[in-house]
Each structure stands twice: as structure tokens, then as C-alpha cells.
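wait is this the right file?? whatever heres the structure
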């Protein structure tokens, strides 16, 4: 007999009410299968298990009430509205609608019983609910009431909350009838000794908690039923990373011998000597490069610690051993800058370098792609265009990814596959300035070895940081003027909370205008994400050469930009940025030997949390310390920030909330691998998808 497909392979279109249009909308929420729907958990709950007598309703509370319509009338004030008064013998309350149809008006006739849910508020001496959710109740069902807490789902335009509830209701029904289509996978001895609830049981509970459930725990995502799911998810990611790592061990590379001999002349010619930390890290990298298994190394070093020269050394060794190198940066601006720095260092050594970004004219791109494929181009610097569609290398020996917090585990893997040559895969060096919390390191980076540059080049002066209200703008502008007169250069960074790039650019344009007016005689440059690559290039070059005094910028300059003479930075709306981002931005100054300063401007009144965060920036410049404080100051349930969570696509678990679960994960994973290896691919597939490429085998 044929077994029915698992819920992971069953489309939501089998549900009543899910036609293709609705299915497309659900897809926006990442829901395509019945399993996806079951893993789409409520974001909060409402208690509709008890009818509140009208006489006992408190203003400000969310309540379920029921009463008989005494009076419905349309009133014409400033706005037309429908007022419906209901009573239940203990009191009365008014329902107020601003938007209503005539059918609605008719249905709320005198004598009809309505049940509503909403927030009661005071209106003069009486109570009212504005736009309650309501339904007309037939007399015979007036006593039938919800037996479970009501889930409220994250949803999307065009999918009503009630529809979401109907869909999950159907999915739960299927689950109770055909449990084997979503099998239980946590059955090892320790899982059993932990008394974990079964998967199906957890799902039923979380989607429809009994009225006795601890609603507070549920809202915080800390209920044992939720933790059961989070644990399974974390376990699955951990297993997938262990597998990647194991697989990585079998990956043969093109070993690069004598890397330090190959690069000795370069090191001697540098205008500075390497710090001890840089030297140590280089030794670690060179030792990896000499192995027959491919290097998988994460290089962490605070902003300004000198990672670029490390990249150059690793690249040069690889190039001189006869292989190609790809260097990938997260932004075009940074790619351009790397091109400049590395050209300065490596072109004299006869290395052929090219730049590949998405915005190149087609003909130019074709030329570069063919130079990459023929091997003529030795070092290729670019954005992710490097690894897209038609790009091909002749013999790629090393991939370097700069500021990698924007690339996830799986992208990293895809990237490596791109460079595969038969059984050989390229070495990988991933560089980041973002300190990685330990919990994240245990998951998202568990497949990598780590090197740390824990020392800044000598002579750096700490960046003096001030926190100032926007009201002191005049004073700040004067300070800018003074700094420029002393020959210093200034960044003025415009930020907006809106993610909209257009608005950010507009704000920067306006600021540049205003500053030009206020600071006559100074030269002001403007750079933002909407400019053409060429324009950005020439603006950056002017600034680098000291031809502009002030560079007004959006957060495009956030990562990597290196202009040592710039020693003052003003950041607008600093209170709205994450600490990690502020740290990155501030890292653009303090790169030369002049004392540098950074002004964090804020608007309006700071919240207590805002004040604490900016104070932390003022008091420390240590990226690791800042990352720790950032985690501390985040409220419970708040995510690690999209950029970081983007590394691991988690549906349910939250790395900061569920940090304690992560501690249990490695041992459990090892046990499952040993006792029930057959479960491993099932777990990985369920949560992490087809990341292992099982589909290809
Ligand atoms: P990051 O780690 O933020 O990428 P960079 O590689 O951009 O830092 O280096 C910051 C600046 O420090 C650059 O101007 C670089 O040339 C300089 N630098 C790097 N290493 C040293 C060193 N050992 N001594 C002095 N200056 C150095
Ligand atoms: Mg850098």
C-alpha cells in the first residue's frame, strides 16, 4: 500500500479555503506545506474562554463580552458612526463603529445577541469598545464558548486572522488523524529522560492552549511546549553543521606549501611591521593552507585591527602557488576600496587583478568573466556577483569573504561549491569585525576554526565619544568647522529608522545642502547608495586625497571604509541604531595617529534604554564588550537583529532567549548520531531544509 506523503511534502492547497491566490499570500509568510503551517506559531494569545459580565468590565482590559442589542443608531458628528448599545442585565456597553456597511447596521438590530472581543475604554461616564471583533449569536448557542485560548498569528495582507485560525485548525485536525505524517523524532534515551512532550502534543498545545495554560509563559515563548520545538530546531541545525564539518574534513584542497617564503618580500616591503596578533593569525592561516584538507577559517578582529593585510598575505601566497583567489565584499564601495588597496600592494608584484560587480556594463563583465575562466585574471575582487550565474574560475585556490556577517552558513557552502574543481575545493577565509556571541558561534559558525586579532596596530588613540542632543546642532557644526580648519577631515553620517534607502539618501542630500550653507569655504562631499559606482568612486577618492573636508554619507560607509586622516565623525539619530552598527561606523575614525572623536546625536528625549546604550558607546570602544552589553540591553524575546538571525534561518528558536537550550544541544546531537543515525537526515530536513544537498545524492 502507498504511504501518504509526509506533511512536509503536502501542499497547503489541500486545505479548505486555500486556493491558489491564498496559497501565494501564505507563501509570503514562508508557508507552503502543512508542516510549514503547523510550525507557524502564534505570536500571542487572547483569552476568550470566559464571558465577562458587563457590570464587571474594567476600562483598559481586553474582554470577551456578550449582550442583547438595546439600541443601534447612526450618528453624524465630525464623522459618521454607528453606535450600538448592548446590555446583559449587569450593565451596558457601547460598540462604536466608524466604518460599517448598511448590512452590518441592519444586522445589529434591537433584540439580537452579539458577542464581542476588544479593549474596553472609558467614554464619559460609560464604557465603550471601538471596532470590536463581533459575531451575532443564536439564542441556542449563546452558552457555547471557546474552550481554548485564542491564537493570534503573524499574518500578511489579504490573509485574515480568522482564516489563519481556520487553516491551522484544519492542519491540527489532519495531524491528530494522521500523526505518522509528521513523525516524532526525539526518542533517544536522554530525550526520554528529559520528559520532553511529544511533537504532536506540543503543536496542539501551542496552537490551541487550554484555558488553564500559563499565558505569560506562552507569550514569552518560554513554555515547555515551545521549548520542546525550539530544542528540536536547534538540534537539527547543530546536526547539519556537524555534518558539514565532517564533510569538510574530507574535502581535498590544493595545498599551498611554504606560504611564508612566498610572501617574505611582501612583508619586508610593508611600511609597518605586523602586530604580534597579526603575525600569529598569519601563522595559523599559512599552516592551514599547507594542509590537504581545505581551510575553513573565521578571522575575527575588531574594526581597524588590520585584517586587510592578512587577506593580502593569504592571497599572495595562493597566487604565487599558481592558483586564483576571489575576494568578496558585502558592498560595492568596499569592493572598490579593496581593489585600490590591493592594487597598490600587489600590482607592483605583477598580479593581475580585476573587479567584478553587478553594475558593470555587459561587455566589460563578459571580458572579466572570460579572464576569470581562462585564468588570466588572478585575483578577482567583487560583490556577490562573483559567485552568480555564469561566473567560472579556472582554478580557484582561495575564497576570502570580508565582513561576512551578511552571509549565512548555506551561502558560504554554495560559494565553496562554485570553486570546486573535481574533488578539490578552495580554501576559505572569512573575515569579520562583528564579535560573535558564544551562542551564535556554537551554531552559525560551528563549521569554522577561529583566529582572533586581539590587538590594534600601535599608536592608535581611542576615539573620544560624546552624546549630544540634536538641539546642540549649531555647536556641533562649529566644532566641525574648527576641526576642518586644523586640517582634519570629518564624516557626517545621516541615518533614518526607515529601511528605505531613498529616504536615507534624501536626508543626506538635505544635510549636505545645509552644511554647505553653514560652512562656506569648506568643501563638502556627498555619498549615498543611489549614486552610480563611478560617482561614488570619485567622491571617495576626493575624500581620500584630502580634497574634501567633510563627507556627508548614509550608512553605505558603515563597513570597511579606511581613510586614516578622517578623525571626526558625527552620527545623526544614533539612538535608533544598534550598538554593533554604531561600533562599525565609529570604527571609520581613529585609524590614523591623530586623536579622533565621535559625536552621537539624538533627537528628542532619550528613553532609559537609549541612554544606557549610548552611554555604553561612550564608555567603551572594545567591540567584544559592546556586543555583550548589546545582548544584555535587549529585551526578552527581542531577536538578535535581522542581520545576525539571517545567518541561521530559525523559525521558532531564538538564540538569545533559548541560549540555555543550546548548552544541551551538542551532547544530544552526539547521542543521536551514535544511537539513531537514521534520524539525523530526517531532523535536518525537517528544520534546515535541503541544505546538505541530499537532493543531489
Ligand atoms: P580592518 O581590520 O578594520 O579591516 P584595515 O585592514 O582596514 O582594518 O586596517 C586599518 C588601517 O591600519 C589601515 O590603514 C592599515 O593599513 C593599517 N594597518 C594594518 N596593520 C597595521 C600595522 N601592523 N601597523 C600599522 N598600521 C597597520
Ligand atoms: Mg576591513
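ok assuming it is, sequence goes like this
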Amino acid at each position: 500500500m502507498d504511504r501518504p506523503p509526509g506533511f512536509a511534502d503536502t501542499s497547503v492547497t489541500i486545505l479548505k479555503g486555500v486556493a491558489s491566490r491564498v496559497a501565494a499570500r501564505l507563501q509570503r509568510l514562508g508557508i507552503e506545506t502543512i508542516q510549514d503551517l503547523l510550525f507557524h506559531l502564534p505570536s500571542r494569545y487572547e483569552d476568550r474562554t470566559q464571558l465577562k459580565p458587563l457590570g464587571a468590565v474594567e476600562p483598559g482590559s481586553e474582554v470577551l463580552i456578550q449582550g442583547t442589542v438595546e439600541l443601534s443608531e447612526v450618528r453624524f458628528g465630525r464623522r459618521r458612526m454607528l453606535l450600538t448599545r448592548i446590555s446583559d442585565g449587569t450593565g451596558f456597553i457601547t460598540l462604536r463603529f466608524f466604518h460599517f456597511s448598511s448590512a452590518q447596521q441592519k444586522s445589529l438590530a434591537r433584540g439580537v445577541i452579539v458577542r464581542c472581543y476588544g479593549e474596553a475604554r472609558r467614554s464619559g461616564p460609560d464604557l465603550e469598545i471601538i471596532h470590536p471583533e463581533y459575531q451575532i449569536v443564536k439564542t441556542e448557542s449563546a452558552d457555547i464558548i471557546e474552550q481554548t485560548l485564542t491564537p493570534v498569528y503573524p499574518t500578511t495582507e489579504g490573509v485574515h486572522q480568522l482564516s489563519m485560525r481556520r487553516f491551522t485548525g484544519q492542519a491540527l485536525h489532519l495531524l491528530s488523524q494522521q500523526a505518522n505524517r509528521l513523525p516524532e523524532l526525539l526518542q533517544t534515551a536522554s530525550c526520554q529522560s528529559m520528559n520532553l512532550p511529544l511533537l504532536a502534543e506540543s503543536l496542539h498545545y501551542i496552537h490551541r492552549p487550554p484555558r488553564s495554560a500559563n499565558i505569560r509563559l506562552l507569550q514569552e515563548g518560554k513554555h515547555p511546549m515551545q521549548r520542546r520545538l525550539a530544542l528540536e530546531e536547534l538540534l537539527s541545525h547543530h546536526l547539519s553543521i556537524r555534518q558539514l564539518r565532517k564533510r569538510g574534513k574530507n574535502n581535498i584542497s590544493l595545498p599551498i606549501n611554504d606560504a611564508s617564503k612566498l610572501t617574505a618580500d611582501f612583508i619586508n616591503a610593508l611600511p609597518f611591521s605586523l602586530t604580534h596578533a597579526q603575525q600569529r593569525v598569519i601563522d595559523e592561516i599559512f599552516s592551514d593552507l599547507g594542509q590537504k584538507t581545505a581551510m575553513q577559517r573565521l578571522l575575527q578582529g575588531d574594526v581597524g585591527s588590520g585584517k586587510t593585510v592578512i587577506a593580502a598575505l593569504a592571497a599572495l601566497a595562493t597566487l604565487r602557488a599558481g592558483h586564483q583567489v576571489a575576494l568578496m565584499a558585502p558592498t560595492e564601495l568596499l569592493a572598490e576600496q579593496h581593489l585600490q588597496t590591493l592594487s597598490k600592494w600587489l600590482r607592483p608584484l605583477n598580479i593581475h587583478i580585476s573587479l567584478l560587480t553587478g553594475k558593470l556594463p555587459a561587455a566589460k563583465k563578459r571580458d572579466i568573466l572570460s579572464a576569470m575562466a581562462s585564468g588570466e585574471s588572478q585575483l578577482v575582487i567583487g560583490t556577490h556577483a562573483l559567485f552568480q550565474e555564469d561566473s567560472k574560475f579556472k582554478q580557484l585556490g582561495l575564497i576570502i569573504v570580508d565582513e561576512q556577517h551578511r552571509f549565512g552558513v548555506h551561502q558560504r557552502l554554495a560559494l565553496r561549491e562554485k570553486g570546486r574543481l573535481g574533488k578539490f575545493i578552495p580554501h576559505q577565509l572569512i573575515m569579520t569585525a562583528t564579535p560573535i556571541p558564544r551562542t551564535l558561534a556554537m551554531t552559525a559558525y560551528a563549521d569554522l576554526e577561529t583566529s582572533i586579532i586581539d590587538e590594534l596596530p600601535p599608536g592608535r588613540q581611542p576615539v573620544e565619544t560624546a552624546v549630544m542632543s540634536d538641539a546642540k546642532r549649531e555647536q556641533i557644526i562649529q566644532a566641525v568647522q574648527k576641526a576642518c580648519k586644523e586640517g582634519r577631515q570629518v564624516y557626517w553620517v545621516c541615518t533614518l529608522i526607515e529601511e528605505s534607502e531613498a529616504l536615507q539618501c534624501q536626508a543626506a542630500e538635505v544635510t549636505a545642502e545645509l552644511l554647505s550653507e553653514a560652512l562656506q569655504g569648506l568643501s563638502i562631499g556627498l555619498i549615498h547608495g543611489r549614486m552610480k559606482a563611478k560617482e561614488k568612486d570619485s567622491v571617495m577618492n576626493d575624500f581620500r586625497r584630502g580634497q574634501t573636508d567633510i563627507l556627508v554619507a548614509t550608512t553605505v560607509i558603515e563597513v570597511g571604509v579606511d581613510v586614516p586622516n578622517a578623525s571626526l565623525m558625527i552620527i545623526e539619530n544614533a539612538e535608533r541604531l544598534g550598538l554593533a552598527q554604531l561600533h562599525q561606523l565609529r570604527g571609520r575614525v581613529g585609524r590614523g595617529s591623530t586623536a579622533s572623536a565621535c559625536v552621537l546625536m539624538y533627537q528628542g528625549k532619550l528613553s532609559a534604554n537609549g541612554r544606557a546604550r549610548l552611554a555604553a558607546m561612550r564608555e567603551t570602544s572594545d567591540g567584544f564588550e559592546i556586543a555583550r552589553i548589546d545582548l544584555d540591553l535587549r529585551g526578552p524575546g527581542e531577536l538578535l537583529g535581522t542581520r545576525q538571525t539571517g545567518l541561521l534561518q530559525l523559525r521558532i528558536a531564538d538564540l538569545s532567549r533559548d541560549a540555555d537550550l543550546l548548552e544541551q544541544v551538542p551532547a544530544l546531537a552526539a547521542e543521536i548520531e551514535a544511537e539513531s543515525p537514521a534520524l539525523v537526515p530526517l531532523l535536518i530536513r525537517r528544520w534546515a531544509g535541503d541544505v546538505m544537498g541530499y537532493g543531489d545524492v
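Confidence is low (pLDDT under 50) at residues 635-647. so i think its the right one actually
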